[in-house]
Design brief:
Largest sheet: 5 strands, mixed
Number of domains: 3
CATH topology of the largest domain: Nucleotidyltransferase, domain 5
Radius of gyration: 31 Å
Distance between the termini: 38 Å
Number of strands: 5
Strand order of the largest sheet: 3-2-1-4-5
CATH class of the largest domain: Alpha Beta
Structural class: alpha/beta
Order of helices and strands: HHHHHHHHEEEHEHEHHH
CATH superfamily of the largest domain: Ribonuclease H-like superfamily/Ribonuclease H
Helix content: 40-55%
CATH architecture of the largest domain: 2-Layer Sandwich
Number of helices: 13
Length: 346
């Protein structure tokens, strides 16, 4: 029973009690209401019937300092163009076109229209485009594609039934060190347990993608008698090419590993590597470059190896698969669990 129905029932009971007792004052004392309120309820019942006892819908007051309608329309129009901007950036964008508005006013308008989160703004933009009259740029189409996939299945995850079932690989640009040159990292992450590997190079040629698998990844799994079944990469030149001529494609074919590719211009489909890159950037590279000046790639690799050992042996992870365990513990637990009992998440 809703609150509205409960209130109507209580008021009908009070009227029935007064009629039964033949004493309005006593009925008001038992019901805990004033006599004037009793007569208001009685008059509403006699005039409108049972519906007259329902609580009145209060009109939302318009505050005297609320954003003017014209300015509100300008904010919403700019929101259509930049739905992923924060209210601070949107306020600055409006100032560039001559509209003076505070960041707080933008945020208040968003809250009034239910657009406080970026995801809500993307869904709002999708509805407006579906109604017609709104031209979407390619950038907005890609953002809406991500929002639509999330709204259809918010719990969708990459499927990985066991350790080694699916590895994710990507190239990460670390930066440039004076006297050393440009530095790239080939990263590989197990989608089942987040065990990660990383090796630094001075280029991102196909042989670097092959080398990290041959030198770091496959020996790790062979030592534990686990077969690597699939590898997911983007469509970069270091990963993709003619099957019988490209070094990376040929290496996977020799080891009977299926090569999967992400969607074009959609790095979020390789989210395990993207999240690992952010972690290694925040927790290792940004810290170590402020503590030490590196003169060679080997020195940086040694420190990276030490951090990676901490990453998957002693650092707890809060992912939906690890759930507070270390990646290596999740890896070992996955080996101990029969594959038929592992429920894929996608």
């Amino acid at each position: 029973m809703s609150t509205r129905e409960q209130l109507i029932k209580a008021r009908l009971g009070m009227l029935a009690l007064a009629d039964e007792l033949k004493n309005i004052a006593r009925a008001c004392r038992l019901a805990g209401v004033s006599r004037s309120h009793f007569y208001e309820i009685k008059q509403a019942y006699e005039t409108f019937g049972k519906e007259g006892l329902a609580p009145k819908v209060r009109r939302r007051p318009q505050m005297p300092n609320q954003t003017p309608p014209e300015l509100e329309r300008q904010i919403l129009t700019m929101t259509e163009q930049y739905p992923t901007y924060s209210y601070l950036r949107l306020a600055d964008q409006l100032k560039l076109v001559g509209v003076s508005v505070s960041a707080g006013a933008v945020r208040a308008v968003w809250q009034r229209h239910g657009l406080a989160t970026r995801f809500a703004r993307l869904l709002w933009l999708e509805r407006r485009s579906a109604e017609g009259g709104l031209v979407l740029t390619e950038r907005l189409k890609r953002l809406l594609q991500r929002a639509q996939a999330r709204s259809q299945d918010p719990e969708a995850h990459v499927e990985s039934a066991a350790p080694g079932y699916l590895l994710c690989q990507d190239t990460y640009y670390v930066g440039t060190i004076k006297g050393v040159g440009r530095i790239y990292m080939q990263s590989v992450v197990d989608a089942f347990c987040s065990v990660a590997f990383g090796k630094l190079y001075l280029s991102k040629l196909p042989m670097t993608a092959v080398d990290v698998l041959n030198d770091r990844v496959l020996p790790f799994y062979e030592a534990r008698r686990v077969a690597v079944q699939h590898i997911l990469t983007d469509n970069g030149r270091e990963f993709c090419g003619r099957p019988l001529h490209h070094p990376y494609e040929l290496f996977l074919a020799i080891h009977q590993i299926e090569h999967r590719n992400t969607k074009v211009h959609a790095p979020y489909t390789n989210g395990f590597c993207e999240r690992f890159h952010r972690t290694v950037s925040d927790e290792f590279f940004k810290v170590t470059f402020r503590k030490r000046f590196y003169l060679s790639l080997a020195e940086l690799q040694d420190d990276l190896d030490a951090w990676l050992d901490h990453y998957y042996t002693t650092r707890p992870h809060q992912g939906y698969r690890t759930q507070g365990r270390t990646p290596l513990r999740a890896f070992d637990d996955g080996l101990a669990t029969p594959i038929e009992e592992v429920a894929p998440a996608a």
